[in-house]
Amino acid sequence: MERRTIGAGALAVGAVGLGCMPMSWAYSGSRQRGEESVRAVHRALDLGSTLLDTADMYGPFTNELLLGRVLRERRTDAFVSTKVGLLVGEQHIVANGRPGYVRRACDASLRRLQTDVIDLYQLHRADPEVPVEETWGAMAELVRAGKVRALGLCAVGARAGRRAGSRLHDATLRQLERVQQVFPVSAVQAELSVWSPEALDGLLPWCEAHGVGFLAAMPLGNGFLTGTLTPGEGFEPDDVRARHPRFTAEMMAANQPIVAGLRRVARRHGEEVTPAQVALAWVLAQGRHVVPVPGAKQERWVAGNAPAAGLRLTPQDLAEVARLPPAQGSWD
Q: Of 84, 161, 172, 214, which is the most exposed, with the fewest CB atoms less than 10 Å away?
């Protein structure tokens, strides 16, 4: 697989990563099977999808434990990315950016992942009660201690909290400018897909200008852009899409023209090419510093996503995708 670099440190990863969250968190709990997920991670590494993206809150903790089972055998094959800063309660999630907590959380992640170093340690969310510079400074200490190789920042997700006239990622850009004064940012993770392209406006250009890698979260639109979801089929109660405005039967039906457009482009490249591969190739085409991180928990999805790294969309393809109708329905 083609390799891409993240940040000024030139950390090399496969062009298509693997988001491990669905294996343990947020998607259809009845379909989460540890052994199957372990096989999926091994398959990803075999195919060159070396970036494994997780977080301590996924599970919580169980996702890192699952990855640890693979890493104890194949640490040198993998690029390990995990996150800190969010705590999961009974019915809520809260931020914790206190320096002492960050240090303890890193040590705990290292134990669960069965490794002595984390390649990319990301701040999941800034704690509103702690200056982000203090949190970032504690994370920088971990780099100097040899426990972490590079630091990343996840984009602020509160669309509803935007000020009038502001862009979606303005708050993240302000955070980036602050933490960059403390220690270099190697990567930013934010949603980017055909039906959620907002990162193209401001955030992606900032990363390119500063030599920062961009990890594209949800590049397949939580599965919608694969074309494998049926409107009205429903989701299990613990699946985040069961409460998501874009995944009502009405909105899924209304957004089918987007999938149809991806399918038309796929057909021009061969019978084996899928809408998902086109959606990932579109993300890859947004810049050499961009690495899509599609979530998957089964070998077949991992194997289906990897070929997108070799799919080159033509100017005609990109123009056709650009003409697709914008997604209908709120994303909050």
A: 161
> Do residues 18 and 67 make contact, with C-beta atoms less than 8 angstroms apart?
no
- Which of 58, 121, 120, 124 is closest to 96 using CA atoms? 124
pLDDT, tens digit, 9 for 90 and up, residues 287-301: 999 999 999 999 999
Nearest to 278 by CA among 305, 252, 302, 253: 305
Q: Which residues contact 51 (CB under 8 A, 6 or more apart)?
A: 13, 14, 17, 18, 79, 81, 215, 291, 293
User: Mean pLDDT of all residues in the chain?
Assistant: 93
- Measure the CA–CA gap between 194 and 320, rounded to whole angstroms: 11
Q: In what order do the strands lie in the sheet with 148-154?
A: 18-19, 51-53, 79-84, 118-123, 148-154, 187-191, 213-217, 290-293
The answer to whether 67 and 96 are in contact (CB under 8 A) is no
Cis omega (within 30 of 0) for bond into 245: no
The reply to whether 121 belongs to the active site is no
Comparing CA positions, the residue from 95, 24, 20 lying closest to residue 60 is 24
Helix (H, G, I), strand (E, B) or coil at 189: strand
Which of 27, 58, 101, 121 is catalytic? The answer is: 58
Place of tokens 């009660």: 129
Asked whether the whole model's pTM tops 0.90, one would answer yes
pLDDT tens digits, 87-104: 988 778 999 999 999 999
